[in-house]
Amino acid sequence: MSQQTTELRGLELTGTPHERGITHGETFADEIETNLEIYLSVFKHKGTDEDTVYEQAEKFVPLIEEENEEYAAEMKGIAEGSGLSIEDVTVLNARYEVMYSAFKKAADEAGGSADACTAFAIQPEITADEHTYLGQNWDWMPGLETFVMEIRRDDKPDMAAMTEAGIVGGKIGVNEHGIGMTLNGLVTAKDGENPFRKPYHVRFREILDAERMDDAIAPLITKDRACSGNVIVAHAEGEMLNLELAPETVNYLHPEDHLLVHANHVEDRSSMNSEFEKLIPDTLCRAPRMKRLLSKHRGEIGIDVLTDALRDHFGHPNSICRHPNETDPELDRLRTNGSYVMDLTERRLMGTNGPPCEREYQTFEVT
Ligand SMILES: [Zn+2]
Questions:
Q1: How far is the CA of 141 from the centre of ligand 1 (A)?
Q2: What is the pLDDT of residues 167-188, one digit of tens each?
Q3: Protein residues near ligand 1, an ion, with CB under 5 A
Q4: 114-365 has which fold?
Q5: What is the pTM of this model?
Q6: Would you say 75 and 89 are in contact if contact means Cβ atoms under 8 Å apart?
Q7: CA–centroid distance, residue 318 to ligand 1 (Å)
């Protein structure tokens, strides 16, 4: 495994989807291999051998091509550029779904295998500069290699989004129309029952391909999902929606007092159960904690208030700024791998590589 840099790297991607993929693959060939090794060892740790993982990945290759041709072309470019196979790249791009498809038992024990995070979105009514902000800490296994894709293109919106090396979709990002998204892991009862469905990462790219809010929401809800997740979609004008997504049901949560917060448990139990808090009970503390930290600065919220909240250590090490819990098995040691704040009004993403209490935020402009 390569030694991780403390810098959050950016990479400009231009040209056709295939050309963007080649640049991505050539630039981060070692990092993509590192990420693949980490996920294969996690799958193994959860009881799924490599042959099974690749059998499932093979089925996702045509599925992704049918769902989104451009996405498939960008994946092919990554494979060519990095010298890995298309199946290797598919394991990463469908990592949520491969996990569930490979072995249902693994999904049942997937505690350490859903990204644990604390997210927020804030309407301009309570910010100091009347801008709309969106952000989160991304808590996951140490060692994963990430970077910020700075995509410049003529046929679709320019965008800046954090991604794991090898993954086309991106996870936390903003586009030139002021549309942004965040992501939290959720675990609900029906995860993995129908694994061969459109992968989440394909949907994430489609959110940031959108020019309007409704087109950004559509990719999440028009087709059923293999597993669960929580996504906030927000617009620079201050419109925002939190979607709690289970395989076949969705809850829509709206801002309260101009604020949305979400962690890793389902807030609206009317249509789905919630499992993740049994494995990480701290999720029940992180969301209300974030709400309090932000609410007390109502009307004065700006970048300093937001980054202070993301550096909060209440309940350390299982805090908003999360640190590895030495008592957990090594592969289940979640930590804040990166911290992100997006100023949707300015089309700007600020982020760290590693826990924000140890790093300064770096800035990426969409245009
Ligand atoms: Zn910290």
A1: 15
A2: 999 999 999 999 999 999 998 8
A3: 321, 355, 357
A4: Penicillin V Acylase; Chain A (3.60.60)
A5: 0.95
A6: yes
A7: 10
